[in-house]
Design a protein that fits this description.
- The protein is mainly α and about 325 residues long.
- The chain has one domain (about 65-320).
- It contains twelve helices and no strands.
- Helix 1 (about 1-35) packs parallel to helix 11 (about 265-285) and helix 8 (about 190-200) packs antiparallel against helix 12 (about 290-320).
- Its main location: membrane.
């Protein structure tokens, strides 16, 4: 009975994180972009520092009419937002935030592969939306999403594989227990590749070619309104939480603190993930959108070779220290 209660509590905790953290990232993005770009609007909603901006956005989406195009594949069109959002909930189940057994929803022996595979499923929501919308611009956005997924899934997987090789396990808690601080310079190339490839999979600027509003209006999401459109935005922010969490666990030591200060546990995990989330927002404000050819070239001519070099380096270091 106690075991079932423990599992239930962990699942509820993961669900609460899934509901709260993406909204916090969305609210933070409003504020950070407002400061960096001198946008005053998000700083005034509700009074003190624009605290009600997120509430105002939610009310706005809830009031909009839910429109389904007459020629759309209605079932696929309506299902796409859920397919885009729910996989990130499943990934959160396997990300450990602390050293205790209760600090992870479900520890899996193949947690790395599970997380990356399920993240790839989330991209299918964009493909479904583009195909089902009966809109040529939406279809073009969906095709760009497919091309982007094919290009960036490989370097992301290879970068994660280098850490698994170093730790000798594909379990996320196992990687953290095997972590040493001297891994940081050793796995730096893999960390950069993983993070950049993750941004591209999430279609975040400067990799937002599938939603290039100056070319294809808003890509696969052009025909979506109201709460269904809001679910796609929530999926984007949930993806940021998941990407930052995985990068923290795989490359930054998760709950391990500097100079052996591991006592804070989950606080270190959240702090590192929050810093990475700020970097994601910072990149959106700083860099312009890539062209499609530049996006593909970056992956196949730079990130893939770098990830292969990281695997080779990991193999050499493992042989030397064994």
């Amino acid at each position: 009975m106690n075991g079932a209660l423990d599992v239930a509590l962990r699942l509820v905790a993961v669900f609460l994180v899934f509901l709260v953290f993406p909204l916090v990232v969305g609210q933070t993005e409003h504020k950070v972009m407002a400061h960096m770009q001198g946008r005053l609007g998000p700083m005034y909603a509700g009074g003190f520092h624009g605290w009600a901006q997120l509430v105002a956005d939610g009310v706005k989406f809830a009031q909009k009419e839910d429109v389904v195009p007459a020629q759309a594949d209605r079932r696929v069109f309506q299902l796409a937002p859920a397919v885009a959002l729910l996989p990130y909930l499943l990934v959160l189940l396997v990300i450990p935030i602390g050293p205790s057994e209760g600090a992870v929803g479900q520890a899996l022996d193949a947690g790395v592969f599970f997380a990356l595979a399920v993240m790839g499923v989330g991209v299918l929501g964009s493909l479904m939306a583009g195909w089902a919308s009966a809109n040529k611009f939406s279809l073009l956005g969906g095709l760009r999403t497919a091309a982007q997924l094919l290009a960036y899934e490989l370097p992301m997987l290879l970068a994660a594989a280098s850490v698994a090789m170093a730790a000798g396990t594909v379990s996320l808690p196992g990687i953290l227990y095997a972590f040493h601080w001297w891994w940081l310079p050793w796995q730096l190339i893999g960390a950069v590749v993983f993070f950049v490839a993750g941004l591209a999979e999430l279609q975040r600027p400067p990799f937002d070619m599938p939603v290039a509003d100056s070319e294809i209006i808003f890509g696969a999401y052009t025909e979506y309104t109201g709460l269904r459109f809001a679910l796609f935005l929530l999926a984007e922010y949930a993806g940021i939480v998941v990407l930052c969490g995985l990068t923290t666990v795989l490359f930054l030591g998760g709950w391990h603190g500097p100079w052996g200060a591991d006592g804070l546990g989950w606080v270190w995990t959240l702090l590192k993930a929050a810093i990475l989330a700020f970097v994601v927002i910072w990149l959106r404000v700083t860099y312009p959108r890539l062209r499609e050819d530049q996006l593909q070239k970056l992956s196949w001519t730079l990130l893939v070779p770098l990830s292969l070099a990281q695997i080779a380096l990991t193999g050499i270091v493992k042989v030397v220290i064994s």
